[in-house]
Protein: DUF7718 domain-containing protein
Amino acid sequence: MVRRREVLIGPDRRLRFTMELDRGRPRFWAVQLEWYDPEEEGWVWVARYDTSGGTPHRDRNRIAAHETVDLPQDPGKAARVAETDLARRAEEYIEAYRAAKAQGKEAW
Structure:
């Protein structure tokens, strides 16, 4: 079973949550910060925490893939820590994305 939800955290930013459950236990999770890019006329992902590859990590679009992060072992707690970080530091992550885009760094 896959659970998904989106939460607006501003007029041009949102968090997207995905959690895949296997027999009631989290198998995969992701928390992603998205920003409405007026130049692209659509939503782009800016930063995300996920467990693809089996290890929790953070990816930053145009900046870094698979950054090592210190998260709780419990998937639910780890996802909440990721959510808090993305919401609190949204402006920082968006500005870094915009700067990398302005420098011509490719999106993934």
Q: What stands out?
A: The longest strand covers residues 25-37. Residues 20 and 26 are 6 Å apart (CA to CA). Residues 75-88 form the longest helix (14 residues).
